[in-house]
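thought: user wants a sequence for this fold. calling inverse folding tool.
action: design(structure=
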């Protein structure tokens, strides 16, 4: 045909992502491809990603990065023959969504309804294999009735209590915060400097579980940095509390982890001038002395800024000879320094003489769960003037959150519900007299502390006595792989472990670790900085899906770095991925008519194919998606070259096999493209996502070997057998040749020149 420029067959179709992706998403939904048989699955695999806060209008690319990472693994396991359950939902109650609602001056109810819809659309368009028939929304009454149920269980087990304490208070969010929500002295949500207030608050006794939480860390397979963070947060220190008599006849108690250094104590220090984060140590002599029980020496008592009031006893014994901080302080104020070797026998002596007692101190404090806010699950407790605190009877749950329009927090120490008599004026469940309902609500981290227990039982006939179906729970839990951000190390991940342990001890669950395997993904950045609205560098995944399709975006997100790194998002990278997909597509479009692989190409491809299967399999298992994709790219390059070189005959079995394998390897990363070529081009039965993952044959893995001749002054002195990759590098070959004994003895003289012909010969000229 005249004027036709392209050499490609006329039949070639253009790849239009929006058509292909929309089509398969519909079919997957209709076929319920991602909804496993919850009651009957034989090989259950619970693949969980931390559910998002709907705290903006839509998802950002960081969500897309993390959720894609989780989805790739789920798809891989499905192709391993597992019944994969991959649920999704919304952590929609609490300060995150509420702060957003306050900011845009809309009711949280309306905001959450709108944003969760949009999140769902976006997540569907990414093509993730979620079971959309079982979702949870923590702000809906059929969920939070069970959050309230959990509170009642804590109360009945003696693990919930209300007490007055000096607690963290965010002046901007106008509520108290848990210790875990204060990061470097700032509010986790709004970054305001957090102050202290004396307030009466509800706590969960997580400290009862400090040792269990520590021990469990040895039994679970978690990202290292998260295990370390939990260990440090729990902060177990074994030591002693030692009593010192003062000259004016009082007793002071110190906490020390080094009673063996009591023989070198020279002063005591209090926390009177404590300042968080102070750099320079400052102190003032109180005028008072304590007596060293060991030697009757007089020890000056100093009021200082470097002893924390809420750790240990808030008083320390100063041992400059063995403690750097004490040394710094002693030097500054010219205090005595006694140099004595530590004495291990003092541990025993101190106890024997009655000066002190062994004491284990923890950094972990009880979990503060009440919030003076509107958007949360009401705490199901009633304060009766006659009977004291009474739990709401289980049958009366949920305590519905009143729909009000004055939901803005006032910062009075009480939440907005405290302005509503119709909410708090109730009868005591015990004596039926007038009583007052608690008007604080629960922190969002209570909602998320148990959601993974709920998912499999959503829409399973419930007996209304438990938040889950016990049989279903036995089949699916604990979670097989939990995937999420490391920023939740000591928040959600600690709380969820605690709650699971409590429910286990109360005989509701037969396991006590919810997430035996947890993988912490990295944080995506843009232009070198964390994505945030204020920086104006938030990437909306929709823009890219519309332009290049979900598969290109998924491939790109998985390719930009190892999953636990902090990859930088770049537009040009996605364009590159889009072009790569075009190359893959053309490979299949050429499939029926182009020449194929006989002779050299056939062997080369077979080896490469098995190598690629091995590499991709191992890399996915280790979350190295980037190098898995790189291996697939190499394989595609080779296939493209062979196809171009027009060797062999049409439609050989090997060729088809090599293209089938390519589709299977691509399926976790580019699920739409893979399904399209699998079904429409290769004519394989639907669906590629339930087909078996390819296996490699280790006999075919050997790389091509090449022989290199080694010459000295042009004379043959040896040869090297190396793989073809190595045979191209002069540096590598020279090094190997010099190490060869047969050659090295000829190289005593000065080598003037080295001539290297890649893949063939190396010649040393003396
Ligand atoms: C004497 C001593 C000698 C100490 C020595 C250490 C080394 P961890 O491991 O973090 O628990 N300490 C006790 N209470 C403190 C407080 N409220 N604020 C600041 N420091 C405090 O640390 C326990 C050690 O930290 C204790 O043991 C005490 O100093 C100090 F060679 O006592 B030590
Ligand atoms: Zn705040």
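)
observation: tool returned 766 residues.
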């Amino acid at each position: 045909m005249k004027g036709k420029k392209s050499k490609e067959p006329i039949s070639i179709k253009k790849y239009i992502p929006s058509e292909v992706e929309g089509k398969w998403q519909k079919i997957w939904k209709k076929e319920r491809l991602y909804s496993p048989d919850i009651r009957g699955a034989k090989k259950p695999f619970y693949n969980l990603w931390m559910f998002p806060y709907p705290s903006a209008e839509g998802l950002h690319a960081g969500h897309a990065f993390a959720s894609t990472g989780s989805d790739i693994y789920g798809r891989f396991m499905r192709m391993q023959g597992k019944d994969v359950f991959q649920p999704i939902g919304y952590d929609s109650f609490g300060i995150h969504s509420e702060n957003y609602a306050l900011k845009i001056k809309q009711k949280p109810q309306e905001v959450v309804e709108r944003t969760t819809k949009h999140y769902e659309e976006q997540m569907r368009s990414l093509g993730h294999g979620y079971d959309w028939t079982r979702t949870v929304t923590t702000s809906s009454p059929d969920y939070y009735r069970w959050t309230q149920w959990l509170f009642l269980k804590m109360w009945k087990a003696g693990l919930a209590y209300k007490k007055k304490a000096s607690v963290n208070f965010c002046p901007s969010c106008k509520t108290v915060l848990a210790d875990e929500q204060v990061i470097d002295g700032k509010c986790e949500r709004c970054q305001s400097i957090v102050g202290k207030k004396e307030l009466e608050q509800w706590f969960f006794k997580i400290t009862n579980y400090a040792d269990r939480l520590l021990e469990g860390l040895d039994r679970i397979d978690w990202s290292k940095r998260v295990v370390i963070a939990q260990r440090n947060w729990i902060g177990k220190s074994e030591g002693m509390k030692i009593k010192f008599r003062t000259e004016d006849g009082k007793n002071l108690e110190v906490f020390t982890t080094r009673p063996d250094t009591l023989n070198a104590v020279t002063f005591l220090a209090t926390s009177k001038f404590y300042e968080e984060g102070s750099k320079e140590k400052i102190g003032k002599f109180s005028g008072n002395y304590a007596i060293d029980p060991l030697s009757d020496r007089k020890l000056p008592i100093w009021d200082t800024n470097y002893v924390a009031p809420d750790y240990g006893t808030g008083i320390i014994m100063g041992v400059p000879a063995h403690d750097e901080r004490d040394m710094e302080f002693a030097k500054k104020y010219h205090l005595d320094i006694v140099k004595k070797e530590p004495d291990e026998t003092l541990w025993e002596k101190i106890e024997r003489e009655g000066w002190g007692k062994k004491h284990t101190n923890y950094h972990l404090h009880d979990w503060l769960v009440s919030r003076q806010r509107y958007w949360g699950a009401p705490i199901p407790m009633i304060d009766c003037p006659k009977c004291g605190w009474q739990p709401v009877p289980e049958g009366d749950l949920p305590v519905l959150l009143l729909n009000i329009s004055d939901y803005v927090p006032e910062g009075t120490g009480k939440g907005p519900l405290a302005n509503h008599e119709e909410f708090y004026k109730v009868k005591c469940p015990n004596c039926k007299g007038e009583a007052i309902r608690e008007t604080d609500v629960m922190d969002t981290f209570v909602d998320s502390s148990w959601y993974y227990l709920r998912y499999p039982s959503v829409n399973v006939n419930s007996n209304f006595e438990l938040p889950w179906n016990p049989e279903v729970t036995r089949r699916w839990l604990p979670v097989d792989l939990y995937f999420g951000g490391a920023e939740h190390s000591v928040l959600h991940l600690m709380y969820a472990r605690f709650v699971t342990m409590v429910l286990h001890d109360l005989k509701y669950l037969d396991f006590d670790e919810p997430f035996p395997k947890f993988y912490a993904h990295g944080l995506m950045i843009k232009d070198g900085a964390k994505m945030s609205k204020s920086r104006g560098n938030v990437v909306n995944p929709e823009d890219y899906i519309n332009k290049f399709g979900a598969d290109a975006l998924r491939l790109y997100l998985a390719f930009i770095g190892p999953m636990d790194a902090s990859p930088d998002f770049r537009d040009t990278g996605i364009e590159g991925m889009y072009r790569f997909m075009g190359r893959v597509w053309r490979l299949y479009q050429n499939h029926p008519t182009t020449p194929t692989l006989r002779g050299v190409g056939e062997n080369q491809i077979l080896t490469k194919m098995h190598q690629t299967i091995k590499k991709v399999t191992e890399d996915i298992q280790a979350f190295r998606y980037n190098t898995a994709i790189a291996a697939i790219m190499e394989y595609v390059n080779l296939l493209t070259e062979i196809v171009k070189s027009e060797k062999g005959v049409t439609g050989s079995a090997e060729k088809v096999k090599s293209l089938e394998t390519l589709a299977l390897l691509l399926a976790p990363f580019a699920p739409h493209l893979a399904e399209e070529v699998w079904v429409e081009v290769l004519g394989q039965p639907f669906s590629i996502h339930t087909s078996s993952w390819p296996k490699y044959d280790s006999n075919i893995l050997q790389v091509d070997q090449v022989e290199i001749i080694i010459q000295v002054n042009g004379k043959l002195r040896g040869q090297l057998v190396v793989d073809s990759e190595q045979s191209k590098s002069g540096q590598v070959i020279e090094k190997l040749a010099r190490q060869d004994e047969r050659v090295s003895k000829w190289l005593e003289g000065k080598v003037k020149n080295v001539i290297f012909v890649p893949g063939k010969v190396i010649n040393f000229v003396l």
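thought: summarizing for user.
answer: Here is the designed sequence. Residues 266 and 335 are 7 Å apart (CA to CA).
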